[in-house]
Amino acid sequence: MRKKIDLRGWALPAAVLAVWWVATTEGWVNTKLIVPPGNVLLVAAKTLAEPVFWQGVLFSVVRDASGFVLGALTGIALGGLLGASRRAEHVIGPSFHALRQISLFAWLPLLSTWFGYGEGAKLVFIALSTLYPVTLGTFEGVRSITRQHVEVGRIYRFTRTQFAFRLLLPGAAPQIATGLTLGLVSAWVATIGSEFLLANWGNGLGNIIIKGRAAFNVELIIVGMLAIGIVGGMLNHLAARIEARTLHWQARH
Questions:
Q1: Domain assignment present for 39
Q2: Range 235-253 burial, b when 16+ CB lie within 10 A, else e
Q3: What is the pTM (predicted TM-score) of this model?
């Protein structure tokens, strides 16, 4: 039996689009500020036909993935250390929890001072945004492992490496997957934010909106926003699929 497609989620976007079209057609709004949807479609078609747009998508995705991997690996290592060692939690934990109270965007002036406005500052900022949710997810996952499981590892005389890769990480997999999902979402937000706030007129989706703003091209700004949302949604869907597969693997064990 074929699964029915649920179209209820499209009701609100369709209503907004209809109101938008009517408002611009009937002249209820200033069309220099709230541009007609048809104009946006024309600019979108023109933009999608330009190779520089797809280069921007590629640069943003690669930038996002690089920062995410760096932050995720560091977060898993740090979260595993804090979860497995009470001493490390007492020594490192208070500083970590204090630092994560600082707004991520408050780090940008310091990062730009240290690394300038190039790729280094962007990657560190994206990695930092990924670090916190992955660390917390890993920490909670490791702490959820029961003492009985630890005793089994001791009976089999696991080495520290075996404890980490055969007991702690597999046992904490669901929480780590959740942390990675949240980290991927945060990384994409940080990617676009870094392209806005550490702008050096390089490549990236954020630069499309910057160019649109500089030229007061509202259509291009909207096209850039839609592109950012679509790519971010695809990354979020990918993260959800990966998390579901991880939890399915965990359930079988």
A1: no
A2: beeebeeebeebeeeeeee
A3: 0.85
